[in-house]
Amino acid sequence: MQEHDLSFVRVEMINAEAPPRSEQGLGHWLHTNLFASVTDSVLTVVGIAILVLTLPPLVDWLFLSAQWTGTDRSFCATTVQGGVRPDGWSGACWAFVADKFQQFIYGRYPVGERWRVDLVAIMFILLLAPLLIPSVPRKGLNALLLFIVFPVVAFVLLLGGWFGLLHVETPLWGGLMVTLILSFVGISVSLPCGVILALGRRSRLPVVKMVCVAFIELIRGVPLVTVLFMASVMLPLFLPPGTYFDKLLRAIVGVAIFASAYMAEVIRGGLQAIPKGQFEGADSLGLTYAQKMRLIILPQAMKLVIPGIVSEFIGLFKDTTLVYVIGMFDLLGSVQQNFSDATWATAQTPMTGLVFAGFIYFVFCAGMSRYSMFMERRLDTGHKR
Questions:
Q1: Which whole-number Å values give the CA distances from 27 to 17, 35, 36, 325, in the listed order?
Q2: How far apart (Å, rounded) are the C-alpha atoms in residues 130 and 85?
Q3: Fewer beta carbons under 10 A from the terminal one: N or C of the chain?
Q4: Is the pTM for the entire model greater than 0.90?
Q5: Spatial CB neighbours of 148, under 8 Å, sequence gap ≥ 6
């Protein structure tokens, strides 16, 4: 066999060349993202026009012309005796928010005991943060502390009556504290209950399936306000005489039941999306039903429905505002309650309070949404990290 001499063998890759000038820079980005077509150009121009018309007045109302300090309505009033104020001020009344901030957070919780609420909040953050960070080890222990031990400790601290702590009745609770309590309990209960209901609805046992279907369809067929009224007004009528359930506890039960029914349908959608071969493969390995669901089916289903689960969490967080109709004052309820305070009765007070409440809800909801996007990217096996 004749041998051929190799005159050249490449031992390293050629360095990548820079992209053409037409494919880089600000001009390329604008053309690609904003002016790629006639439709995109029209929408871009319309969007810029809307921002130009709305953004300056909004910034002026929120910040430039806003009143940041004050002790009563005179600092935020747009009119004075004899007509309009000389300076023509008509901005947000952040002095109202500053004066009522403690009440927006704690409700009517005694001032001298609010350190207990702060301690519970610090404990919650310290337990939640490691659970949300994938690289932190001992997730099982962390979950045990957060969902089993923490609720008991928080209940003792917030309610009091033990270990020398002053007893604080739940009607005094309010503000953001009640919003977070309802949301945390509702989320913690709805997810496992939703899984059980979803599995029960797909069960081959007729009685189990019928009970789960009836529960889900009944709860999903009525609004949350009705469930809250049932839990707050009707539930005590079915209890033995002398039995009393705290109003906050009844609201928690109503919210948890409502959220569980909706969560069950979200998780059932994930279960139905799993290919039949996954079930057959698990059966061929000799796995029991519990092992099949815990090790193979549920992990895949939960990954598929992360957006739906987080959407339910966000909806639950916002739906807690409905407890206002049964006489409880969450964050929004506390804000609305203070609108009737004659000390701060001005034209700007209601809008300022609602903007503040909306900002708080946006921060929490946006945080949950961004974390769900992070988890989607991390659990996407086809994603390049």
A1: 20, 10, 11, 54
A2: 53
A3: N
A4: no
A5: none
